[in-house]
Amino acid sequence: MAAARYSSNELRRQVGSPRSKGRDNKDTLCRNILIYGNCRYEDQGCTFNHDQNKSSSPQADFGKKTFNVESPAFTPLSQQSAPVKKSTLSSQAASAAPFTPRGIGTPNLQQTTEASVFNPAAIREFTPQNYDIGNPTANGVAQDNGLYNDPFTAMGSISAALPSAGQFNLYASDHNAIATSGAPFYPQHGAFPTGPLQPPNYHLYQPFDTYRQELQPWQRTTYDFFTPAKVREDLQKKMFATQQVMPNSGLPQLERWHSLFPLDTNNRKNTSSFGYPSWVYKAQNSRTGTHYALRRLEGYRLTNEKAILSVMKEWKKIKSASVVTVHEAFTTREFGDSSLIFAYDYHPLSKTLHEHYFQPAHGNRYRAPNAVQENVLWGYVCQIANALKTIHSNRLAARCLEPSKIILTDTNRVRLAACSVLDVVQFESNTKSVLELQQEDLVKFGRLILSLATGTPPAHLNNVPAALDSLFAKYSANLKDAVAWLIAPPNPGESKSIDNFISGIAAHMTTFFDLSLQDNDDKQFHLAKELENGRVARSVMKLMTIVERGDLGGAQGWSETGDRYQLKLFRDYVFHRVEADGKPNLSIGHMLSCMSKLEAGIDEMVVLTSRDNETVFVLTYRELKKMFDRSFNELVKHSKTGAPGANN
Ligand SMILES: Nc1ncnc2c1ncn2[C@@H]1O[C@H](COP(=O)(O)OP(=O)(O)OP(=O)(O)O)[C@@H](O)[C@H]1O
């Protein structure tokens, strides 16, 4: 127990030698005898009984008068039940004079059950000298003698529910367990001496590294603790786009889809890709609430039900990072015609390659195309090759390999966006075998890259040999050879395959793979930071549910008493810090580190001072954490909905 020095006038008032108020107390055993075995006021006019043998059962007496403020037997059953006005200092007044234990009765009394609830003899003065942070036992931290016992663990069923050390899972913050099975929120607190003592220190706020290493801590900005501005901005824009609605769009509500939002950037009825005008909408699924991209083929009349069933069955198997996943297809008349709809994964703020590279600036005049950098082109080649590898190995063909049907979902990140459509639309009219369609895929793939490299839309790519020759000026021979191989017809009697192609570009695939791993590492780094922030946010939310709360379960001013008072002071220490001149100190680093230390429950000391500077608590984060968990668990017990886990 490290908390020790307090000024506690109030405490003295509560626990001092009882005043008799003129009543006859001769039959009532003096509480100092009960607690300490002697009463120093015995010869100074204390009117209570000092002969233990004369008293009727003190326990029974105590049981009757537990909640009576007049009662001389000061032996509260729990901190909560004591009828204190402001019990913040109730049980820790080591220096309270009337309770300095003396005499022979003391050791025995320490072993009683009551003594474990209130046992000032066990409170040791905090001595900062020789404090060994690595040895809690030596520091007296582990010897709290039940002062901070978690009330939950007093219940036998709960102790039984404690996980063993091997099962200890820091993140298993399942409050529902408290509500249902009664398991404590942080299991280790109940079984303080037996289980794993505390979460290890790696749960402090410690992201792997920080961006601007050359800076001193005080030169860092708030952003060093969070996701970089660019990433955050991109993600927020995407979230915003996902939530965007258009109330008066005039678009219908489909049977299982609502909030349709048009994604097309022009209203041209272009039939070149599928033979039907196609439109794309963002829509929310009524059942799951998930957003999808619905591709609608206007005026399509389905003649064979099997077309959708058998094609979807095959395409649902395709899981590739380079293919937009298709979920289902159905027909509808809600648009006033007969439409065929495909539901795809929605990738917010994506653009087609056509929009990105060949978008007409005004009217039909094409913007001067930017030359696509070779490494970017190779990135596209690798990703599309990856898509074709998955599709072809599932005995399917992509078919829609044109710039208007490939979307850029992130920087240099492409996905095939209209797979399966032609398979349904041409289910009966298609006369080509899968192998032939796959060969066509390779040629379309080659033309696509050539078109991007030369800045010519595929429809205008009339002179392929000349376009291929022009590649020498800007790109490596390697790229030109790859494109030429894709476009060239196979030797008679042979067929080309995507596997052959991938073997030919293995070096570029490896480079791309490495970049992709690096990107993954980068994201992992940000994720780790956000993980820490998420944990801090959780703790802050819990702290806010405790401090400044009014009554709880009949306990008046609940949040101002007991553990909660110290938590309130901790809140002040973390969030309401002021400089010497009284100006607010808004150091985010301080807030994050304090909250992380609380989360981790480390042995570091923290000094909490009341606002009137009259009370000072010196205690460890470990103790604070116990108070924190205990208070929160108490809230959970009283809440109707039980634990907040489900709402997290
Ligand atoms: N799965 C998707 N998620 C998010 N947006 C998508 C998705 N698929 C397509 N889009 C977007 O929808 C818009 C329209 O796509 P579409 O394929 O119709 O292109 P288009 O240029 O209009 O082609 P066309 O002229 O053939 O209709 C594009 O901006 C595209 O980025």
UniProtKB/TrEMBL annotation:
Disordered: annotated segments: 1-24, 74-108
Xref: SMART domains: S_TKc
Binding-site list for ATP: 295, 345-352, 404-405
Keywords from the named record: ATP-binding, Coiled coil, Cytoplasm, Metal-binding, mRNA processing, Nucleotide-binding, Zinc, Zinc-finger
A Pfam family: zf-CCCH_PAN3
GO annotation terms (biological process): mRNA processing; nuclear-transcribed mRNA poly(A) tail shortening
Zinc-finger ranges (C3H1-type): 24-53
Subcellular location: Cytoplasm
InterPro entries: Kinase-like_dom_sf, PAN3, Pan3_CK, Prot_kinase_dom, Znf_CCCH
Domain Protein kinase: 266-513
Protein function: Regulatory subunit of the poly(A)-nuclease (PAN) deadenylation complex, one of two cytoplasmic mRNA deadenylases involved in mRNA turnover. PAN specifically shortens poly(A) tails of RNA and the activity is stimulated by poly(A)-binding protein PAB1. PAN deadenylation is followed by rapid degradation of the shortened mRNA tails by the CCR4-NOT complex. Deadenylated mRNAs are then degraded by two alternative mechanisms, namely exosome-mediated 3'-5' exonucleolytic degradation, or deadenlyation-dependent mRNA decaping and subsequent 5'-3' exonucleolytic degradation by XRN1.
Annotated domain remarks: The pseudokinase domain, the coiled-coil (CC), and C-terminal knob domain (CK) form a structural unit (PKC) that forms an extensive high-affinity interaction surface for PAN2. Contains a pseudokinase domain. The protein kinase domain is predicted to be catalytically inactive because some of the residues important for catalytic activity are substituted and it lacks the equivalent of the binding site for a peptide substrate. However, it has retained an ATP-binding site and ATP-binding is required for mRNA degradation, stimulating the activity of the PAN2 nuclease in vitro.
Family: Belongs to the protein kinase superfamily. PAN3 family.
The protein's name: PAN2-PAN3 deadenylation complex subunit PAN3
Species whose genome carries this gene: Achaetomium macrosporum
Lineage, uppermost ranks: Eukaryota, Fungi, Dikarya, Ascomycota, Pezizomycotina
